[in-house]
Amino acid sequence: MFSHEVIKSLTETEKIIQEYILQNKNMVSYMRIRDISAETHVSPASIVRFVKKVGYDSFAELKIAIRQSTKAENVRHLFSTHEIVDEFFNRTLTSNYNRKLEKAVNLISESKLIYLFGIGSSGIMAEYGARQFLNFGKRAFYIKDPFYPIGSSKEDFSDAVVIVLSVSGETDQVLNRVNALRGLGSKIISITNTSNNSLNGYSDVNLAYHLTSELTEDLVNITSQVPVLFLLETLARKTYINQNSFSET
User: Fold this and answer.
1) What is the pLDDT of residue 114?
2) What whole-number distance in Å separates Cα of residue 1 and Cα of residue 54?
3) Nearest CA to 178 among 192, 189, 193, 167?
4) Shortest CA distance to 90 belongs to which of 7, 20, 19?
5) What does the pLDDT read at residue 218?
6) pLDDT, block means (10 residues), the chain with 249 residues
7) E strands present in the chain
8) Three-state DSSP class for 78?
9) Which residues pair with 116 in a beta bridge?
10) Is the dihedral of CA 151, 183, 175, 173 positive or negative?
11) For the CA atoms of 102, 103, 108, 109, what is the dihedral angle to 10 degrees?
């Protein structure tokens, strides 16, 4: 629906509109511009400019395209790994994204301890990420239990970084733990599918990978974790390079 060339040229405000549309196609096709404005906290004028920029003469024309796209997706096959990788590397990894990565690496490099926290599939990714940081000599632990009492003590977390993994960024157990850890001084790096979520509001750095969400017929979220693996390995390797004066080849 949106070409890679156009997506790469979007401003941060326009990306918020794009993310909302992609994540809420069934609703957006029946909404008004002012409804989307209220949901995204973006001005109606910005939405109109976005519509023109992505190649549609009017918002009504865009809504027709959304309905057609949604119908096609309802009968299509699952995304192939090639499609997933192409969507992430060609649409998401921009120069602005690299600046976010560098900011996250600096926070990790300055920390004495890393916690990686996630639930379900994100918990498995947290375990993998902790192992990667340990392989590169960085002290790291993972937590997969949503009720683990991290942040419940009065321990000082000002020298710690918590890397939080959550596809939606809206899980209550995750948000509660992150809020507690921020209160104890921890820095928060979140890895989520979109940037328009509650977890981003608690984060010092948010790395969103912007994949089209995938659900099974039973509404199980099967959105790929391939970008998460890439981001975790990138953070671990860049931190090692940053702290050991190596150069990247």
Assistant:
1) 96
2) 9
3) 189
4) 7
5) 64
6) 71 89 81 90 92 86 76 58 76 77 95 94 95 95 86 78 93 89 92 88 92 70 87 96 72
7) 113-117, 140-143, 160-165, 187-192, 205-208
8) coil
9) 142, 163
10) positive
11) 70
* Residue located via tokens 């995304």: 79
Query: From CA 41, how far away is CA 38, in angstroms rounded?
Result: 5
Calculate the alpha carbon distances from 147 to 61, 141, 144 in Å. 47, 16, 9
Rounded to an integer, what distance in angstroms lies between the CA atom of residue 92 and that of residue 83?
Answer: 13
Rounded CA separation 137/118 (Å) = 22
Euclidean distance between CA atoms 200 and 23, whole angstroms: 16
Look up residue 13 and give its two tokens.
């405000």
DSSP string over 106-166 = HHHHH-SEEEEE-STHHHHHHHHHHHHHHHTT--EEEE--TT--TT-S----TTEEEEEE-
**Structure tokens, 125:** 């990714």
Question: For residue 83, what are its two tokens?
Answer: 């499609």
DSSP state of 213: P
* Helix (H), strand (E) counts: the chain: 12, 5
